[in-house]
């Protein structure tokens, strides 16, 4: 099965002719620069281009629709049935029609082995136009000036406990990013450093001058330089948070069930921003070298963050859990004996005398794929999960989950790329059974080369590990 | 001045003949294996070898004495006066007598440029014998068996706001480490994995068997493997905490004023453990390659940890500080405008509307050497500082400081070393004016080579950056 997915993806990436040369004017709107029209379209229709979502924040979401797959797959009702067939387990990739995804994007997915009724993953590939909200200088914008910005966007959403969160994220997260970037349209195109302070209303003078500052301490009189890049990172971080808050607000009315890991890529003004919240993974293959563009957030990798939170806010443990970690569950008969443990400050282990409260359930337990927070969830970052509770309890798990991504930046202008170079995004199902090197060696190997090539994205969304074993 | 220190250190490291070959039996006690005698000696005497400190935990500390320098400098009263002379600023290194420090350890220090009355830094170099506390198996120990363990120890303590904490740490931290290792003497010498559980009393059966575990969740029925190495790491981590707690207990009676960064190295059973709490730095130079063995903990590198704590425990901010970071101090006239900020979750920056509480002092401010927590302290990990308060306030700063080190492990048995290889420990004063590469290139270059050599340590403790500028 793995080979089937590999072949499908390799075919997609390599068969479409030349890999795209770097967009000459990434800040120029393309087809998505159509003037704003009103609210987002129904989910079964092709997704509204983000640029057509209008200037209003993405604060509403249409009524929950039936199960769907990424729109770029262009599945007919029959195709959707086949994609959803656990027995057949067809590999899905976009049709080989004239209409290709940007940057020769490849995609492959397969239904899971039966752990959930539907494939709960989603994916998204968009070109998004950002119209400036207003002139930050307060002056009326000149119509002749290039006002907008355009970004390329790819998203992979690994859903769990329902497909609602992944579906909502695939439709709306890029709009939240667009909203966050609206304030920055002029700033990002201005070679000067970003102003530290903006006027509250257009026309009012901004204050980016610190000469009037008098502080008793030298640390207060200094002024940090903030880069354009860090503004984009901040915009993406806040977009994730706003997406998560929207899911919390609308979960009841719209059945936003479950949660999802989110791995998204934004290409803007020459730089690739890879934002990861969850256990998906992104790599760039450049001239045969593998550059990790994300790290996984799991109960193991985030143990100390989780334990610290449980330690500082013991009420979140509800008297049912202990923030301490033991190498296995403590048994009542071991009271008074000394067992290995580690707390939020430790990376090593030491012995401690077992007391009554050490018999509580461990906040973090298990190893590898079996590691869990509160014996329930195996990822510690993502979107949604607002209704997630500990089994047989009302204790919410969400406080321990973070919706914030780690964002890594890759400056495309700093490197030479060859036609085989590729950016690969995969959910854990891919990486559980395939190493970075294997993914690389099974990638495309044809297509014209030469300077100016950029790594074409390659998305794989096998929902479950078993999905690749056949 | 820098060259004077460099020369002194290079001389020390290179002049003593052959670099030490790896100790053949690092677990055999050497001269320090003398039978325990009673409490620690007075601080102006040569420090009691740790092995002679007796089996009692290091829970008491002798009365505060007058200012001193590391005992291995063997300073006469006249030498001590010269070492403490801000005008002369003599470089101090151990006398070139027949009695050399273990592993051809080199050392150099210079008094600061006048920021404090005395040099508040301290250093320590010891060979410590650990006698097992008891047989963990419960069986009486066979007298013929090698019962003890020996570790080599180097410590560098960068004091601030008084020399008491650094002095106390230099005399006692290795004893705390020894105490923590006492339970592990047999376990570390046993090739079997460490038992997960120890009996509460010798003779009682231990429980390291999980076959009786029945859990509803698979994560609860698993059992983690704990390595010997992670036990040593845990022992060092807990020793730092116990040292800090001892300082808190005894600060009133013994004038343990100030705080200190602590950078210590433990060599035990073939591995080098480098534990760092503060902004000192350790590197290993191996065949010309530089291997970083620590990272610095400052308000900048620990910004998110500090902000998270302020966010989760706002009472620690006393209504005086905000956990948000702004690129500079917010001014009252900017109320209602939008300024760049970042919170505990963000690495990027975004704009927010300035509200009244944003006018509070920032928890973290400044950049580089000027970065401060609560406008007061420029390091975020270390020992002591229990009395440290915000200037003109009763607000304690200690809750934001961590006494826990990050421990990195270097397996000496995995690498070949040449005679120029060296482990360098330096306080920030060294690294502020000297890059890793410069330190390397000014190191020793003579002495017989050959396999089996180990990196000899090299300690430099210039108290202040200015101390190197002359």
Automatic annotation (TrEMBL), chains A, B:
Residues 207-216, 461-470 have a biased composition (Polar residues). Residues 47-59 have a biased composition (Low complexity). Residues 36-46 have a biased composition (Pro residues). Residues 104-470 form the PPM-type phosphatase domain. InterPro entries: PP2C, PPM-type-like_dom_sf, PPM-type_phosphatase-like_dom. GO terms for molecular function: [pyruvate dehydrogenase (acetyl-transferring)]-phosphatase activity. It comes from the Eukaryota. Pfam families: PP2C. GO terms for cellular component: mitochondrion. Residues 1-103, 196-216, 437-470 are annotated as: Disordered. SMART domains: PP2Cc (SM00332). This is Protein phosphatase 1J isoform X2. The gene is PPM1J.
